[in-house]
Amino acid sequence: xxxxxxxxxxxxFEHTLFALPFAxxxxxxxxxxxxxxxxxxxxxxxxVGARTAAMSLNRLIDRHIDARNPRTAQxxxxxxxxxxxxxxxxxxxxxxxxxxxxxxxxxxxxxLMPIAVFFLVxxxxxxxxxxxxxxxxxxxxxxxxxxxxxxxxxxxxLTPILLGLGVVTWVAGFDIVYACxxxxxxxxxxxxxxxxxxxxxxxxxxxxxLHVLAPLLFIAVGVVMSMSWLYYxxxxxxxxxxxxxxxxxxxxxxxxxxxxxxxxxxxxxxMLFVFSVLDLIIxx
Length: 284
Known about the structure:
- This protein is mainly α.
- It is built from 13 helices and no strands.
- The mean pLDDT is 91.
């Protein structure tokens, strides 16, 4: 039990909250209401498998960098709480769970799964050669609602593309904010991020621009799906939370990055999902 607790802490299992509501949102929009229990079960297991595999792999690939960074030196692998073989086994099992869940959803979900795996694996390497790493992370999470839509319907449509792009810009934006706290270390190690390459102030400006685009894309989803006022109220709450995020973090004061990254973004995904579902159930 202790090892499991350490592992769940290492992969920040609770942060599945960021992506899971958007995956559910893709499923609910695809269904025009409440999806079947089995669909939700396999979408949930696919998400757990994907995120657990991605985070485990990230910790494995970055273990030497984490050991040199004072902020991350106490993570499970560099601190010796978990060994490499154990984490590799968790990674393989998680990818197997993702693959089996995709198979249980439908054949298109299974055929497209390698695309998701590609971006999940690629992300951990991108900061070694490009500042676009934030967008690769965004794509990795943005595939969640698109994958859930396909899992329910078995085909593509405009809605999951718009919703996925909304998630891409939202995630890339808050990941840029998070990267601001490692600027000095990243520059010393030759690692790439938007703040490390362009500076913290410019990074926050780019993040703010992305966080203007994200709600516009969510609004576009509402237009395409003919959503009602409850959905747009959820988007309005998301706008407020994004605005608040950029009010409490500045180039001269990064002390509240944790609040901006973890709390406000977690609230955003849950609130947008809740108001979207209320709209679908009550007003459609």
